[in-house]
Amino acid sequence: MFDILTYFASAEIYWLILLLITFGAITQSAIGIGFGIPACFLVLIDPSMVPSCIVLMGSFLALSNGILSIKDVIKVDLIYSFSGRVVGSLLAIPLLFLTIGTKYYLITFGVLLLIVTYLSARKWDIVATKKNITVAGAASGLMGTLIGIGGPPMAIVYQNSTAKNVVATLNMFFGIGALFTVILFIYFNIINLPELMKSLYLAPALIIGTMIGRKKNIKDFVSKNLKSLIILVCFLSAVIIIIDAILTS
C-alpha cells in the first residue's frame, strides 16, 4: 500500500509528476490560478490522475491558500461565483460518462480560451460584475470538472482588480468549488483509494509550492504584473490544452 510503484509506473515518473505539481502549486499560490496546467501534461504521463487527483489536490491547495489570506477575500463574490460553479460541475458530471473523447473537450475549451485571452490582451477591460462572476463560475466548474483546468474563466473576469483580493478570492473560490467536485467524484466512484494515495504521495509538492508562491517578493511581483500574468497563464493553458488534444487524437 505504501510502495510508490504501486501507484506510479516508475520512480522517474513519480519525480516528474512531483515537479509538475510543485510548479502548479507555486502558480496557484502566487496568482490564484495555474494549478490545472500540469493536468495537461499528466494526460500524457499518467491519464488516471486527470481529473480526479488534480481536483483532489487542487481543492486542498486552493482552500489552504484562501484560508491563509481570508482577510483579503471578497466574500460577497463567492456567493455568485460558487452558485455558477455548482451548476457547471453538475452539467459536467454526465459528460464525463459519455463516449465523446476527451480531445473534443480539450479542443473546444482550448480554442475558446485562446479567443478570450486574445480579446483580453487587446484591452478588453471586462469588469467583475455579479453577472460576469456567476457566468465565469459556471464555465470554471464545467472546465475544471471535465479537464482539471478551471482557473482561466474566473481569472479573466478579475484581471483588472486589486491583486491581493484577486488571489485570495480566486483561491477560496477554487478551494470551495473543487471540494464540491471532490464530493461529487466520491459519490460517483471517480475518486477511490488509488487516487487518494497518489495525492498523498504528491502532498510534499503542494507544501513546497505553497511556501514558494507565498513569499513576499513573489507577491510584490504579482501585484505589479497581475493582468499580464493572468493573460500569460491563460494563453499557456490554451496552447497546452490544444497540444494535448492533438497528441491524444
Largest sheet: none
**Count of DSSP-assigned helices:** 12
Shape: globular
Determine the N-to-C terminus distance.
34 Å
Q: Which range best describes the helical content: under 10%, 10-25%, 25-40%, 40-55%, 55-70% or over 70%?
A: over 70%
Percent strand equals under 5%
**Number of individual domains:** 1
Alpha-beta classification: mainly alpha
- The beta-strand count equals 0
Q: Detail the poorly predicted runs.
A: none
Give the ordered list of helices and strands. HHHHHHHHHHHH
**Rg on CA atoms, Å:** 17 Å
- Mean pLDDT, to the nearest integer, reads 87
Task: Describe the structure in your own words.
It is globular, with a radius of gyration of 17 Å. The protein is mostly helical. The chain has one domain (10-247). It contains twelve helices and no strands.
Walk me through the topology.
Elements: H1 4-7, H2 11-31, H3 37-45, H4 52-68, H5 75-96, H6 102-121, H7 130-147, H8 151-157, H9 163-187, H10 193-201, H11 203-213, H12 216-247
Helix pairs in contact: 2-3, 2-9, 2-11, 3-12, 4-9, 4-10, 5-7, 5-9, 6-12, 7-8, 8-12
Can you describe this structure in just a few lines?
The chain is mostly helical and 249 residues long. The chain has one domain (10-247).
Q: What labels describe this entry?
A:
single chain, 249 residues, mainly alpha, 78% helix, globular
